[in-house]
Amino acid sequence: MSRDIDVLxxxxxxxxxxxxxxxxxxxxxxxxxxxxxxxxxxGQTGDFVAVGLSALGMNTHHLDLLGADPEGELxxxxxxxxGIALTAVPQPAGTKRAVNLVGPDSRRLSLYDxxxxxxxDRIPPDTLRPLAEASRHVHVSITHPCAHALPLLRETxxxxxxxxxxxxxxxxxxxxxxxxxDVVFLSAAALTDPERTLRDIAGRGRAEVVVATAGAxxxxxxxxxxxxxxxxxxxxxxxxxxxGAGDAFAxxxxxxxxxxxxxxxxxxxxxxxxxHACTVPSTETDAITRDALLARVADExxxxxxxxxxxxx
Length: 313
Fold this sequence. Notes:
Elements: E1 5-10, E2 15-20, E3 38-42, H1 45-55, E4 60-66, H2 70-82, E5 85-90, E6 97-102, E7 108-112, H3 125-133, E8 135-140, H4 144-156, E9 159-163, H5 175-180, E10 183-187, H6 194-204, E11 209-213, E12 219-223, E13 226-230, H7 245-258, H8 263-277, H9 290-304
């Protein structure tokens, strides 16, 4: 079987409206003057992972439901401009959208419009199967239709990854994703005991690697039954906001995995890419390139003594 696609990104396509606010939580007021502007741009979690992988030289294909609306056109234009293949299944309810409030300390509060989905939404199997069978790896967003795709994806033999985002370790919605994937990403923000959650995911599911990102504190990597703290990487410019940092981490980690790097090296790739993302305004989409990633990893090795990357084919 020929697997010409490096990564199929499933789900997570949509549009965000970015609002920089003076503080979070935002105190009640009749109105606020937003001098920085209120801007709508294409890019939710699946879009950002696809853009990140493509910038790193991975042959990437994105599959999701999209509406025949202006928001859907923004998503299509993003992929077209970046040369990323996109298969859009018609979504009568419209393209997913959200409002992100970003505070001065770079924290984000996201408001998701759940009206753009229906309980019976599905990715058609005759669309999904051939794309998955042509892919070395599938990265699965935790949007509703993707949960129903997990059994089919496992049948295809492609590697699977997912990002549980701010899972608390208890919400049952996330469990099918956590237990089906070979590589699991999540944020440590809502975890009282990250190690327990990571080991629970690996112990009950299929995960070979589980990573909990912890912002400025770095990340926690569980691989080969060993938990390791991954130190943070100093961003190359001032931190503006953290939107997309987790997606950048996942994309760079998967790049490392698919080019044969060990888990600790993959995590360093992720840390470098995540730090880069924190220097990019939410209103822009500017993923780190392959050359820049490898150069910054080499710089990090010289600065800290961390193991550096071998030559990547």
